[in-house]
Design goal:
Blueprint: H1 22-34, E1 53-57, H2 65-68, H3 78-87, E2 117-121, H4 134-150, E3 156-160, H5 162-171, E4 186-189, E5 192-197, H6 202-207, H7 212-226
Parallel strand pairs: 1-2, 1-3, 3-5
Antiparallel strand pairs: 4-5
Helix pairs in contact: 3-7, 4-5
Length: about 230
C-alpha cells in the first residue's frame, strides 16, 4: 500500500476485523478454507484521502480484491480501470491480467500509486455471487459515508454500477429517487457531482455494454468537472 494510505487502518473508513454482516463473515471464512492463499478480509480503500475524485465500486471479487487485498486487483475489471486511470495520469501503472488462480501473480505491494483519485467499495467484503443484500449495503454504508466526509477536497464521485450509485446516495442522505442511475449521467448532490458508469466488469466488457472508449469518456468527464 502506498504511504498516503496509512490512516486507513482506522475503523472509521475500514475495519479489517469487521463481522457486522454475519452472512458475509461466514462466507469469507468458507472461502478462506477453500483458498488459504487468498486475503479473505474486508478490503481497504486505495489512494490519497485528499483526492478530489472518488471512484466507488461495488464489492471485492472472489479472485480479485478478495484474493489480492487491493480494490480491482486480480479480476477482469482491474485492467480496464487501472489502464484508463494510467492513460489519464491518475495511476502510476496499469495492472496485468491474472495468470492462473494464485493471488501471488498480482500483488497489492507492486508499487502502484494513485494520483488525485481514490477507490473505495460500497461493500468491503466479498458477497456470495457478487450480490450483497440490501441490509449488508446499509450496514457497510457507514464506512464510505465517513470516507466521503473526511475527503475535504472531494468534488466528483464516479459510481461504477447502480449498487455503488445507490450507496453514494445513501451515504449523502439522499433518496434513491433523487438521482436515477444512467451511464454518463451527472447528478449535482450538494457539494459533490456524481457521475455514473456501467461497472467495468468483464461481463459488461464482453457483452459490449461498456467499451473502453465509453469508460474513458466518463473519466474525462470527471476530470473536466474536477478542473
Amino acid at each position: 500500500m502506498q504511504g498516503d494510505d496509512a490512516p486507513l487502518s482506522s475503523s472509521l473508513f475500514y475495519d479489517p476485523h469487521c463481522r457486522l454482516c454475519p452472512r458475509l463473515a461466514a462466507f469469507l471464512h468458507q472461502v478462506k478454507q477453500d483458498h488459504p492463499d487468498f486475503a479473505c478480509l474486508p478490503v481497504p480503500p486505495l489512494g490519497p484521502l485528499d483526492a478530489p475524485l472518488l471512484i466507488a465500486g461495488l464489492a471485492p471479487g472472489l479472485k480479485g480484491a478478495n484474493a489480492s487485498g487491493r480494490p480491482f486487483t486480480g479480476d477482469g475489471a482491474g485492467p480496464l480501470l487501472f489502464g484508463t486511470l494510467t492513460e489519464l495520469g491518475l495511476a502510476s501503472r496499469p495492472v496485468p491480467v491474472r495468470i492462473g488462480d494464485h493471488p501471488s501473480t498480482l500483488r497489492a505491494d507492486d508499487g502502484l500509486q494513485l494520483h488525485g483519485c481514490r477507490i473505495s467499495n460500497a461493500v468491503k467484503c466479498l458477497p456470495p455471487e457478487n450480490k450483497p443484500l440490501p441490509a449488508e449495503i446499509r450496514t457497510c454504508n457507514r464506512f464510505i459515508a465517513a470516507e466521503i466526509t473526511a475527503m475535504t477536497n472531494l468534488r466528483v464521485i464516479v459510481a461504477l454500477g447502480k449498487v455503488a450509485h445507490d450507496a453514494v446516495l445513501m451515504a449523502l442522505g439522499q433518496k434513491a429517487s433523487s438521482a436515477r442511475f444512467a451511464h454518463a449521467a451527472e447528478h449535482r448532490l450538494g457539494d459533490y457531482m456524481l457521475i455514473d458508469s456501467y461497472h467495468c466488469s468483464r461481463y459488461n466488457q464482453n457483452t459490449g455494454r461498456l467499451t473502453a472508449s465509453m469508460f474513458r469518456a466518463v473519466f474525462e468527464q470527471a476530470l473536466h468537472l474536477v478542473n
